[in-house]
Design a protein that fits this description.
The chain has 348 residues and is α/β, with parallel strands linked by helices. It folds into two domains: 163 residues, 3-Layer(aba) Sandwich (Rossmann fold); 152 residues, Rossmann fold (3-Layer(aba) Sandwich), CATH 3.40.50. The chain is built from twelve helices and twelve strands. Keywords: Plasmid. This is Polysaccharide pyruvyl transferase domain-containing protein.
């Protein structure tokens, strides 16, 4: 069996945490299969309205100027080998960058399912922002689950069910956190590339919190930072020259990176998610619409701009309740299979 996953590689580790969870979930239902990816990395698959290079290649009848060499689904290739297409997690499950994947689903009559998809803002299924082809594939899909209620409302009229993001299943093992000894903090900066950065306002706010956090808690707990994107490394060195930061080019390494902490804090939704998958509670510093996804990871939310006392009260309360929170999180993860049992995955 060959399953094509819409994801990114070497772009946003969160997308790959979602991919890991989706693969773990589907293996429970289908057994072993070959995972194939449709890579949405913007360096690999551009989504410009006017793309001179692509237009020129089209006129010349093929990849003359620019060849697609990525080890992923190529535009125009024979996709008759594919048995299923999966859109999972990310808000980028429609639009120009995935247009050819929808076309593949129709041209080769490949079933498509949507697992824990989310949104960055409100929409309606009948909006002009949906193409006729996208609507057609959605209406034919036998499985549509969403990770937030805004997406569920936007897909009104379809059988879209609210279930946590598949990143909740990204790690295969979990542990009960008995007490907090080591805390992980997700670093973020406004100087990283677009979509891997935060706003200047968010950056200033979290820097203030993080510095105060170190003052208050460094004598009580081991504290280390985590980076998801390479642009964060030089900026971290300037901001916290005496602190430790964890990073890897390989997203699978983040299971071990996050797994060594007892509590996670930061702005990365799926940093909280991959931690939750291991039974580790997290606090999300909510800086955009996607933060609601963290509710599916049983995470605590503190909005950017909140009084710092709210942040530190949330931390102190969570530390006191950490064992029960961890147990609840593990039970919540175990219930995931029960939530999807009724989704007809075996009948696709």
């Amino acid at each position: 069996m060959n399953i094509v996953f819409s994801t990114t590689r070497q772009w946003n580790p969160g997308d790959e945490f979602i991919l890991m969870g989706a693969i773990n979930l589907l293996k429970e239902y289908f057994g072993d299969f070959n995972p194939v990816i449709y890579n949405r990395n913007p360096q690999t698959r551009r989504a410009r309205k006017y793309d001179v290079v692509k237009a020129t290649d089209k006129l010349l009848g093929g990849e003359v100027i620019e060849k697609f060499l990525d080890n992923s689904v190529k535009d125009g290739m024979d996709l008759s080998f594919a048995d299923l297409i999966v859109f999972a997690g990310s808000p980028e499950w429609r639009g120009r960058r995935v247009e050819s994947l929808y076309k593949y689903a129709k041209d080769y009559n490949i079933p498509a399912i949507f697992l824990g998809i989310g949104t960055g803002g409100e929409f309606k299924f009948e909006d002009k922002s949906f193409s006729d082809l996208e609507r057609e594939i959605f209406r034919k899909s036998k499985v549509i689950t969403v990770r937030d209620h805004t997406t569920q409302n936007g897909l009104e009229g379809l059988d879209a069910r609210y279930i946590p993001c598949p990143a909740l299943l990204s790690a295969k093992k979990e542990r009960e956190v008995k007490e907090v000894k080591k805390v992980g903090i997700m670093y973020a900066t406004n100087k990283a590339v677009k979509n891997n950065n935060v706003s200047a306002e968010t950056y200033e706010y979290i820097m203030s919190l993080y510095r105060e956090f170190l003052v208050r808690y460094k004598d009580k707990y081991e504290i280390e930072f985590v980076a998801h994107y390479i642009d964060e490394l030089p900026e971290f060195k300037k901001d916290f020259p005496n602190e430790i930061i964890n990073y890897s080019y390989d997203s699978k390494d983040y299971i071990d990176i996050y797994g060594k902490f007892d509590l996670i804090i930061g702005t990365r939704v799926h940093g909280v998610g991959i931690s939750a998958s291991q039974g580790i509670p997290g606090i999300m510093l909510a800086h955009d619409f996607r933060a609601d996804t963290v509710k599916g990871f049983k995470g605590e939310l503190v909005k950017i701009g909140e009084d710092e006392n709210v942040f530190f009260d949330t931390i102190d309360k969570l530390i006191l309740e950490i064992e029960n929170k961890s147990k609840d999180l593990i039970t919540h993860k175990w219930c995931y299979d029960g939530l999807v049992d009724s989704l007809a995955l075996k009948n696709i």
